[in-house]
Design goal:
- This protein is of the alpha/beta class.
- The chain has 25 helices and 28 strands.
Length: 775
């Protein structure tokens, strides 16, 4: 039955023509609905009523694949009038999904969905009376502004199978009886409550709600956000969409719950062949954050199955960054911990006829339509022996692989489980010359560690079926894989290969160059871990891939540093200024607050002398419209000094460059005209190196050849780094590596690890937003 026949069939049960046509286009839903109608017709000779038709449609659209075989049972109960509401129908499906195997216990099934239970109008009236009496005082006080929603919920809780419409009507009737008709005051609009708008950190570039959709509007931390995510409960894996149930599933889940005690278990499984980047920060926060939000644990597992690219500095760096973000792994494990077990399981697959040794070259297996392996049906004993030969080093690299007999969602046929690599492993040495692949290793290590929620980015969705297939093929506990959208930041690259290229081409210095978006680079630039975590919380948890401008991250960094970074005065482009009528006999000390808006948080002393330094940008020899700082005809105030200076004389060198200003000062308290601006300054300064960073790339997507035809290396911003010698107040002389400051009127800066005892080096973290005319 197709096309018009299907539409007519669906219209016959009460669907509108538009809805019927939409349903007919969906092969899965239309097949389900046909089954529902056929089953209902077998027990009902008359036409299907619209009420029954809507319930059948509900079955067709809401039933999970794990219990699709129960469509006839549900449909018959609907047709016979035993299940007469969505409430009962949802309860019936919940019961079936909780008991997915074996024959249905009809008695327990009917009890679960209230078959035969009748709630009379009298019962509803009595229950509503009780609830109204309970809230009577508040109802009288708030009258019709009282939210009756909780009343409805309370009555429904006590009368589970009561008709919702009847309950709502009875509540409205009894409220009217208590309060009387609405008065003019009741009808007047409620007083407006000022809402503080929360800025959204970023919007996804595309929409995908397949697995999860939790935005960040009411969550300021990752823990708050992850408490809202609707994942399955431990041990209820079988209730999730797409989960494959076998005869052993329920027993394996019972054993799993005995081992874990129902505890949530997640894992962060990076490859130790590069440094973590901003995208990994989201993964870390989601995995560790979900565990923390549910009193669970999170493993840090190194996926160390590719020894030729793995280095000790990457192992150390990964752990470093996880801990820097504030997380402590429950256990630190390695995929290599399980090499022996993985090898035994591989032999088990071969014995079951589910894996074979293949001699196709790598290039022959690439693409979506590769030539099928001529060795796919190789005898089991032969594959076992050849696999043993692979392990014993009797083949050259690339001469043989072990492949699994499964097709991925993306169409990839028979993914490789083991390949030959004559490279020593950092932990197992030369013991192995065959190493398992990600497709083989990942789910099995999840099973060994009894992970409850295998959380990964969306690109791994195509591997979900092989994940479930492999665990079930080996008759071992199968976790649930959930996918979320990965985070991409514009104007950068995060590929390990491309960052390595930037380093070898000497465009950046190393993996922690502050122009990169690796986590070590962001820490070095001065981004607080708290800001990165809050930024990730601001992303929400959705299935959509995120594309974010770096300014969004910088805004969160700025908000964090505004609360935590003490203020100091540093002049990036020093210009000498001599106060000719300096009002003190010698240098004087001024107490300056660390946080001007919160003076109680402490202060530091700065020196004021007759020679000070101001920033060159705070002086104009030629007046310009809108310029508010020092000119020949315009005085300017000195922050915290209580002085206003006006220009007397300009000194220049032989090339005409201004080298010194001579000014006179007056007290700001007695100054007749308040200056338009107060500028920062230093006196008797120390000199520091300041590294000013800009975006490394000029285009939003440097890897997109449509945007950058010459490739990402041709898109480098030549002004991404400039170094200046700045004059700083000596109050920062004791600063330590990673200490952060706001250089007043300039930006936020962090002490760089290159600093020495005799020379402090600062990295600009983010600039302040300043009005050039006012500052």
């Amino acid at each position: 039955m197709e096309g018009l026949d299907l539409v007519n069939l669906f219209v016959g049960i009460g669907l509108s023509e538009v809805k019927a046509k939409e349903t007919a286009k969906n092969s899965n839903v239309s097949a389900n609905l046909k089954s529902c109608i056929n089953a209902a017709s077998s027990v009902s000779s008359g036409e299907t009523s619209k009420a029954h038709g809507m319930l059948l449609y509900h079955i067709a659209t809401k039933i999970k694949p794990q219990i699709s075989m129960q469509i006839p049972l549900l449909s018959c109960y609907v047709a016979e009038g035993k299940i007469d509401s969505e409430l009962r129908l949802n309860a019936a499906m919940d019961y079936l999904i909780s008991n997915p195997l074996g024959d249905v216990d009809i008695k327990a099934f009917e009890e679960s969905c209230g078959v035969g239970v009748v709630v009379t109008p009298e019962q509803i009236e009595q229950e509503v009376e009780k609830v109204i009496k309970k809230y009577q005082a508040e109802l009288v006080e708030k009258r019709y502004r009282f939210n009756v929603g909780p009343l409805m919920s309370e009555v429904r809780n006590n009368l589970k199978w009561g008709d919702g419409k009847v309950i709502k009507s009875e509540i409205e009737l009894q409220v009217l009886s208590l309060l009387g008709p609405k008065t003019e005051a009741d009808l007047a609009p409620p007083p407006k409550v000022e809402k503080i708008a929360k800025p959204k950190v970023a919007k996804p570039t595309s929409s995908n709600k397949e697995n999860l959709e939790v935005d960040s509007d009411s969550a300021s931390t990752i823990t708050e956000l992850m408490k809202k995510v609707q994942f399955h409960k431990p041990g209820e894996n079988f209730k999730t969409d797409g989960y494959v149930i076998t005869e052993k599933t329920m027993d394996l889940l019972k054993e799993h719950l005995k081992i874990t005690g129902g505890q949530v278990r997640t894992r962060f499984p990076p490859e130790p062949n590069g440094i973590l980047h901003i995208g990994h920060a989201k993964a870390i926060n989601i995995n560790f954050g979900y565990a923390a939000a549910n009193d669970g644990v999170c493993f840090l597992r190194y996926d160390d199955t590719n020894p030729e690219k793995e280095e000790e500095k990457f192992f150390v760096g990964i752990k470093d960054m996880v801990e820097w973000l504030g997380y402590k792994p429950y256990q630190i494990t390695h995929s290599s911990d399980n090499f022996d077990q993985l090898y035994e399981w591989a032999k088990g697959l071969i014995k079951k006829g589910l894996a074979y040794v293949c001699h196709q070259k790598a290039e022959e297996m690439k693409g979506f339509n590769p030539v099928p392996s001529p060795w796919r049906e190789r005898p089991v004993d032969e594959s076992l022996q050849l696999f043993e030969d692979m392990k014993n080093g009797l083949f050259e690299e690339g001469a043989a692989t072990l492949r699994m007999k499964v097709t991925l969602e993306e169409g990839k046929l028979d993914p490789v489980a083991y390949r030959i690599k004559y490279v020593a492993h950092h932990r197992t040495g030369d013991r192995w010359c065959i190493y398992p692949t990600y497709d083989y290793t990942h789910c099995l290590c999840d099973s060994i560690e009894h992970i409850t929620h295998s959380l990964c980015t969306k690109e791994f969705q195509s591997r979900r079926s092989s994940y479930y297939w492999l665990c079930n093929a080996l008759d071992i506990y199968c976790p649930v894989q959930w996918e979320y959208g990965r985070l991409n930041v514009y104007y950068t690259v995060v590929s390990k290969r491309k960052i390595a290229k930037l380093i070898t081409e000497k465009i950046v210095h190393d993996w922690d160059d502050p122009r990169l978006f690796t986590l070590t680079a962001l820490r070095r630039r001065g981004f607080p871990a708290e800001a990165i975590n809050n930024f990730c919380a601001g992303m929400g948890v959705t299935g959509a891939q995120m594309g974010v401008d770096p300014q969004k991250l910088e805004a969160v960094v700025k908000d964090t540093l505004d609360l935590t970074a003490p203020r100091s005065m540093v002049v990036l482009a020093p210009l000498k200024v001599t106060i000719t009528n300096f009002p003190f006999d010698g240098p004087t000390s001024i107490e300056v607050p660390d946080f001007p808006k919160e003076v109680q948080r402490g202060s530091h002393s700065v020196t004021l002398d007759r020679v000070i330094y101001i920033d060159r940008s705070d002086f104009r020899e030629v007046e310009e419209k809108g310029y508010r700082r020092l000119t020949k005809g315009q005085a300017v105030g000195l922050r915290y000094a209580g002085l206003v200076i006006s220009l007397e004389n300009i000194k220049k060198d032989a090339s005409g460059q201004v080298v010194e200003l001579e000014v006179k000062c007056t007290s700001s308290a007695t100054c007749q005209e308040k200056p338009k601006a107060f500028i920062h300054w230093v006196s008797n300064p120390m000199f520091v190196e300041v590294r000013l960073y800009e975006r490394l790339f000029q285009h939003q997507n440097p890897e997109d050849t449509n945007e950058v035809p010459g490739g990402f290396l041709s898109d480098i911003n030549p002004h991404s780094l400039s170094v200046v010698e700045a004059a700083a107040d000596k109050s920062i002389s004791g600063a330590k590596v990673y200490d952060k400051f706001q250089f007043e009127r300039v930006g936020y800066f962090s002490v760089d690890p290159d600093s020495t005892e005799g020379k402090l080096i600062f990295n600009r973290t983010v600039m302040l937003k300043e009005d050039a005319g006012k500052s």
